[in-house]
Write a structure and sequence with these properties.
alpha+beta; L-amino peptidase D-ALA esterase/amidase; Ubiquitin-like (UB roll); 2 domains; six-stranded mixed β-sheet; 11 helices; 15 strands
Amino acid sequence: MKKVEGGVTAAEGFQAASTAAGIKYKDRTDMAMIYSTEPCAVAGTFTTNVVKAAPVKWDKDIVKNSAFAQAVVVNAGIANACTGTEGLGYCKDTAKKTSELMDIPEDAVLVASTGVIGKQLPIDRICAGVEQMSKKLSGDLTSGHNAALAIMTTDTHEKEAAVEVELSGKKITIGGMCKGSGMIHPNMCTMLSFITTDAAISKEMLQEALSSTVTDTYNMISVDGDTSTNDTCLVLANGLAGNEKIKEKNEDYETFCEALYYVNEALAKMMAGDGEGATALFEVKVVHAASKEDAVILSKSVVTSSLTKAAIFGHDANWGRILCALGYSGVEFDPEQVDLYFESAAGKLMIIKDGVAVDYSEEEATKILSENEVTAIADMKMGEACATAWGCDLTYDYIKINADYRS
């Protein structure tokens, strides 16, 4: 597997465009389009929130029932959530406009929105934006990069990743972009993520590959404990790489899954590290747990602990908060067996052994916790299972950002 430059336009046959439609923001681009020159197999995962935005409902239907997909239209600023039949109608209007301009079926057009909940989309601006973007579509990396910039809300930077692998003697590429900074919590897909690939793979295998990789990537991150109404991850595969089509779980399928996992993990970590107001990516590894389920629960319990997140912001090795979060997770374990380490680019340090603090240097611990990527490792000594969760520190700026988000 080879990491390459780019995002959604890295794979052959995919184009992108962006525009400033003036939906909410007045000083930046706020719409993006992804288009494939060929029809694509499509797969998706979506929010588990009972309150689902109109685009989620629209896309779930297309993923389940459409023969193929060929375009994705995304807007930032207004979420089109809690907007009733009118909001769902705007999804259809967007798809209809795209269909007319790109000469593709309406049910081949996916839509996605992110932003403020409860406001109706200015559909005239949306349709005007679609028309503008239809004339600017390009397969160059810059267009893909600009699309990643256009879908941001409170994100501080764009998020892209791409890799190349070989399937049945052919080079295939998987690239993606995402946005996500707040209202991020596990057990869904997590905000908006769009993956493109020129691999030839059946719709059934594509869905299985996505669902399997989401479990240990997007479903293992949390910023603030809030699961969005709009969480969507879409994968489009147009087959232009010319590999032997993947129709079953064979060696090519496993290789494809590894590459897809890499892209999704990279994007998931970017979102966790760019949590609203965050100064550090906080990684929690639980090792030697009794079961995979236990490891997942334990790691998520620590990464979502507000007190632990605050300690990470303060570069404070307050290990009692981590042991406490493990303890209220609901998993049974012996606290007098647990070892805990902190690790970063500045080094690795054992903090507790068998549930009791060792004679460690607070100065060294602070140095380790002052890096922009920090890991806590909890060794449960209960079995062979492990899991990793990602989050971020909790800062003053998180409150500032969310206190006046609508304005």
